[in-house]
Amino acid sequence: MAKDYVRRTKPKSKTTTRAKKSTGNGRGRAPAPRRLPIFPMLLLVMVAGALGYLIHIIKGAADQRPVTPAAVVSTKDTSTAAQTAPINPIDQKPVEKWTYIQQLENKEVVVKLPEAKQSTQRYLLQCGSFKSAAQAEQVKAKIAFQGLGSQVRHASGSVWYRVVLGPYDSQRVAEQDKHKLIKAKAVGDCAIANWQG
């Protein structure tokens, strides 16, 4: 059987008409009346009462706190109300008693440092190797703009022009200059080598 997609209403079925006739009102069963949620309301009242009782107990305990006698303080103002007012122990600042201050005043700590080894080794920083002297001079100029002095070295019988910095007395200083040049993008990368000379 073909379906009619043009018709918007649903076809009446025989079972729905019988159900309407049997109930009499045409809607089916009547909705159940809404009941008041007694159990949650009772639970809420009990929790509120317990909270109120707890607050009452805490407040009563705070009122029964023992009052310490007021400390006599000699001031230029001799009003009797200021001298007879009780001092609340909660309002007083605690007195700090530290013993390590007296213990450490005369304490002397002896530290033995290992003797620094005198290194005779020196380091060079190579920042490029080029086939043309013009390229090597450009890198040397970029390094000079960073406040460092460099040299272009050309070995006899070689076609390479090397840009070097140094010699440095420690590897740490060479590393600092290397990071300075790389951070400023004056060179791509540099290599640290031992210097014999």
Features:
alpha+beta, 13% strand
Give the overall shape: flat
**Radius of gyration from the CA trace?**
48 Å
Element order: H for helix, E for strand: HHHHEHEEHE
> N-to-C terminal Cα separation, in Å?
106 Å
Average pLDDT works out at 80
Q: Sheet bearing the most strands, described?
A: 4 strands, antiparallel
Secondary structural class: alpha+beta
Number of helices: 6
Low-pLDDT runs = none
- Fraction in beta strands: 5-15%
Strand order of the largest sheet: 2-3-1-4
Helix coverage percent: 25-40%
Quick one: how many beta strands? 4
Structural account:
This protein has 197 residues and is of the alpha+beta class. Helices cover 37% and strands 13% of the residues. It contains six helices and four strands, in the order ααααβαββαβ. The protein has helices spanning 14-23, 38-63, 80-84, 100-105, 133-145, 171-183, and strands at 122-130, 151-154, 161-168, 191-195. It has a four-stranded antiparallel β-sheet with strand order 2-3-1-4. A hairpin with a 6-residue loop joins strand 2 (151-154) and strand 3. The longest helix is centred in the first third of the chain and has 26 residues, at 38-63. The radius of gyration is 48 Å and the shape is flat. The N and C termini lie far apart (106 Å). The relative contact order is 0.09. The model has no long low-confidence stretch (mean pLDDT 80).
Q: What's the SSE blueprint?
A:
Layout: H1 14-23, H2 38-63, H3 80-84, H4 100-105, E1 122-130, H5 133-145, E2 151-154, E3 161-168, H6 171-183, E4 191-195
Antiparallel strand pairs: 1-3, 1-4, 2-3
